[in-house]
Structure formats: structure tokens, C-alpha cells
Design goal:
The protein is of the alpha/beta class and about 500 residues long. It is built from 16 helices and 21 strands. The protein has a seven-stranded mixed sheet. The longest helix has 27 residues, at about 380-405.
């Protein structure tokens, strides 16, 4: 009888439950969206209880669709939108407020005040990250300062903090009855509170942010043969199953793309865009605005680190054209509209809706469309929106090559936007290297499944995972180098126009 590994993929806009077989193929999948809450400009929130409800629904739907019986699922891996911050009551399971999403910029003042003493990079040597609104620590500090019931609960020892992985795993393992409060090294490295080398919470940084260690989850490996905990028969899986894989979504995609050797890189095109380069057991501090992060830690083996280029808005720009401007009714229509014109008509669209992430880290930036003339139509705007993703990736790749000294030979890609032929061809053209899409495109969920499956022996080694990875399509660059550089220089001019918009 066929056995499966289940992956819970809790993303920025939706939650999925996917069951994978031994070949890494999707046996069954279920997906549901949750609300995006915008209380005021620059604020982005999610309802944690809604996310947990959607998680239960997709688990039930996957089990029903697959006609799954007890014993069919060998293990569970979790992957999640990173940095999104949840605080809740350990005795009731109720959040003290909505989750503050990674894109949210309300903590700019906190970051600016901390940067006044030591600069934006004051913690970088320890945590690999600049002081910016992106990460969890300033979000926790904002909640302590602004949510009175949370502060008093911290003092009483009733409060818990976690990124979304901690929230989901706590509920899956029993919640208020006996929920396990953990996070893996990859997620912990995104809080700005974990020392990269010791892989423990930094007392120095906790003191600086005035955050109590009591609210923090225990840090565990990304794949753990000892298991984090098990599900219960009265939970959504209706069976006792080990939960033993946990990875932040971008690190999960690194594993799903089998980038296990130093110098291998992947780029995930989702709500945002995230390129990770495996740097092995070395902690490489970036000089070009990239992040140093934990890639993964498989059980008792040494931790693997990565350089990351994080881009806030890529697929979210297509959603914005759909939802805010009504230019399209479905995201898939963007390619048809963009293909109605031969080029961008001379315009550039820089989607700095939440400021600029890598390699700039400018929270004062805001989105612009430059080069507008009467000639421009909807097709040009659509094309410029797609091209923005490719240009931002080029900036990150340039920084990555300079920091690492490694010249990328090709770029492995995954995520929802990789089905867009026009975008992928332009990506290859503007990078000047081949872009490669694997046959199994759900690499984020697959990475979480791999982490869990390795822990229970469903897959024996990385060799098994390499055998599963096969090419679906390769886009070769066709653009003349001079034309490539002319277009790119136009993009860099457009970027400059976004600076200093917010005082």
C-alpha cells in the first residue's frame, strides 16, 4: 500500500495541504485563501484563528480527496510565511491581536530609534540581518508597547510568541491541552533574536529589545528524528502522526530544489521573491545588502547557511493590478495582457509598496511608475509589472555573485509565477544565464515533506532526493548584451526615484 508524507504549507495568501509519494510527486492537494487585512497604510495583518481554521479545512479536504486511511501518512512537515508574528495565550489559545505580517512597516520608528545607537547593522554580525521592519523582533516590541493585555500576560507568564510555524505546530500537537511550542533554526534566524553560530536566543539582543525569553519557542532542527510531537486522533488528521519537519518557506524551497551543495541557488516567485544561495557551513556576512540566514539543519548534522536576497513585492503586484485596479480578473490573465505589446513602451514599475528590501533596505521608499507618456496602455503597464520581478532578481543576483565570488551557471526557479512564459524568458534575458524549472513545481511544500520524510526514513538520504529532481523546462537567454544593459540601467534610474518618499 502506498505511503505518503504530508506537508502543511502556510503562505502569505493561502494555506495548502499536499501529500507526496516517494518519488516526490503530488498525490493530492488542497488549498484555501485567507483574508489580507490592511488597517491603515503600511499595515498588513492576518487573523491567526482564520489561518488555523483554513489549515484544518485543507487537511480534511486532502484526506477526503485522497481517501486516506490511518497509517497512510508517515510523517508531517510544516513550512510557513516567515517573520509574520503571532502572540497568543497559552491557556486559551486566543491571539492577543492579529498577526503582524512580514510586509508590515509600522515598526519603522522602533527600528530607526535602535539604529541611532550603532547603525542599521548593529546586530548583523550576530544575526546576519539589518535592522528593518521585515523581521519579528521589532514586531514583538511593537505589540508589547501597544497591546496592554499582551504586556500584562507576558509578566504573568501566560503569553507565547511564534512565527506561523510555531502557531500551527502548537495546535497540531494539542494546543491548550499539550501543544508543543517550538520553531526550527531557519525560522528562528528570521526573528533577529537568534545568534547564528550558537543557534540559541541572544540574551544581549533580547535585553536590547526588552523581550522576555519566556515567550519564545524552543529552537529545534529542521528535520528531527526525535520528532517535535505527534498529532492526536481528535485533531484534523484523525490519527497519531509524527511532526518532524519544519522550515521557513524559502529555506524549504532550497531543500525542495535539492540545493545541498555550496554555490547552488534557487529563486522562488510568490507574493514576494526570494533567492537563496547555499554557502555550506560558513557564515558569510554580506557587503551588498543580502541577508545571512540559516538554510537548514538536518537532525544532528552541521547547520547549513545561506545568503538570501529578499524582494517584498512580485506576485503581489499582479494581485494588486487584479484587486485594486481591476485591470485583470484572474492573475493568469497578466501574461496575455503583457504579450499584447512588444515591450514596456519605455516605462518601469517599481513596486516599493512596503519600502525596498534587498539590496537596499529602504523603508522610506514607495512605489513608482516612471516614463509615462500618452503612448502607454494597459499592456505596457502589465508588461512593466512582470519585468519588475526580473529586474529585482537581477539586482539580487549581482549582489550574490559579488558577496560569494561564485558565478551562477543557471538559476533554479519555483513558485506560482514560473508558469508565466513571458516572465521566465525575460528573466533569462536580463540575467544572461539559463533559467531552469523542475518537473515538481511545489518545491516549498516538497522541502517540508523532505525534511519530515528524512526524519522517519521515508527517504534515506539526499541521494534519494536528487533522484526525484528532474527538469521540466529551460529558458535560454537570447537578448543582446548591449540591449540587456541599457534596459537594466533604466531600471536602476527608476529605483532612485523611489527613495526618500516617506519622511
Amino acid at each position: 500500500m502506498e505511503k505518503y508524507i504530508a506537508a502543511i504549507d502556510q503562505g502569505t495568501t493561502s494555506t495548502r495541504c499536499i501529500l507526496f509519494d516517494h518519488n516526490g510527486n503530488v498525490f493530492v492537494s488542497a488549498q484555501r485563501e485567507h483574508r489580507q487585512i490592511y488597517p491603515q497604510p503600511g499595515w498588513v495583518e492576518h487573523d491567526p484563528l482564520e489561518i488555523w481554521q483554513r489549515t484544518q479545512e485543507v487537511i480534511q479536504e486532502a484526506i477526503d480527496k485522497g481517501n486516506i486511511k490511518p497509517g497512510d501518512i508517515q510523517a508531517i512537515g510544516v513550512t510557513n510565511q516567515r517573520e509574520t508574528t503571532v502572540v497568543w495565550d497559552r491557556y486559551t489559545g486566543k491571539p492577543y491581536c492579529n498577526a503582524i505580517v512580514w510586509q508590515d512597516t509600522r515598526t519603522k520608528q522602533i527600528c530607526d530609534e535602535l539604529a541611532n545607537d550603532g547603525g542599521q547593522d548593529r546586530f548583523r554580525d550576530k544575526v546576519g540581518l539589518p535592522l528593518t521592519t521585515y523581521f519579528s523582533a521589532p514586531k514583538i516590541r511593537w505589540m508589547i508597547d501597544n497591546i496592554p493585555q499582551f504586556q500584562s500576560a507576558v509578566d504573568r507568564g501566560e503569553a507565547l510568541f511564534g512565527n506561523i510555524d510555531s502557531w500551527i505546530i502548537w495546535w497540531l500537537t494539542g494546543g491548550i491541552a499539550h501543544g508543543v511550542h517550538i520553531t526550527d533554526v531557519s525560522n528562528a534566524s528570521r526573528t533577529m533574536l537568534m545568534d547564528l553560530r550558537s543557534m540559541d536566543w541572544s540574551d544581549e539582543i533580547l535585553n536590547t529589545f526588552n523581550i522576555s525569553r519566556k515567550i519564545l519557542p524552543n529552537i529545534v532542527p529542521s528535520s528531527d528524528k526525535r520528532f517535535y510531537g505527534t498529532t492526536s486522533r481528535d485533531g484534523p488528521f484523525k490519527d497519531i502522526i509524527p511532526i518532524c519537519g519544519d522550515l521557513g518557506d524559502q529555506q524549504a524551497a532550497l531543500v525542495g530544489q535539492t540545493c545541498f551543495n555550496p554555490g547552488e541557488a534557487k529563486n522562488t516567485y510568490g507574493t514576494g521573491c526570494f533567492m537563496l544561495l547555499n554557502t555550506g557551513t560558513k557564515v558569510i556576512q554580506s557587503k551588498r545588502g543580502l541577508l545571512t540566514t540559516l538554510g537548514y539543519k538536518m537532525d544532528d548534522t552541521p547547520a547549513i547557511y545561506a545568503l538570501e536576497g529578499s524582494i517584498a513585492i512580485t506576485g503581489a503586484l499582479v494581485q494588486w493590478l487584479r484587486d485594486n485596479l481591476g485591470m485583470i480578473t484572474k492573475s493568469s490573465e497578466i501574461e496575455v495582457l503583457a504579450s499584447s505589446v512588444e515591450d514596456n513602451g519605455g516605462i518601469y514599475f517599481v513596486p516599493a509598496f512596503s519600502g525596498l528590501f534587498a539590496p537596499y533596505w529602504r523603508s522610506d521608499a514607495r512605489g513608482v511608475i516612471v516614463g509615462l507618456t500618452r503612448y502607454i496602455n494597459r499592456g505596457h503597464i502589465a508588461r512593466a509589472a512582470l519585468e519588475a520581478t526580473a529586474y529585482q532578481t537581477r539586482e539580487v543576483l549581482d549582489a550574490m555573485e559579488e558577496d560569494s565570488g561564485v558565478k551562477l551557471r543557471n538559476l533554479k526557479v519555483d513558485g506560482g509565477m514560473v508558469n508565466n512564459q513571458l516572465l521566465m524568458q525575460f528573466q533569462a534575458d536580463i540575467l544572461g544565464v539559463p533559467v531552469v524549472r523542475p518537473k515538481i513545481a511545489d518545491t516549498t511544500a516538497l522541502g517540508a515533506a523532505y525534511a519530515a520524510g528524512l526524519a522517519v526514513g521515508f527517504w534515506e538520504s539526499f541521494d534519494d532526493l536528487h533522484e526525484n529532481w528532474q527538469i521540466s523546462q529551460t529558458w535560454e537567454p537570447h537578448m543582446e548584451p548591449n540591449h540587456r544593459e541599457k534596459l537594466y540601467q533604466g531600471w536602476l534610474k527608476a529605483i532612485e526615484r523611489t527613495f526618500n518618499w516617506v519622511d
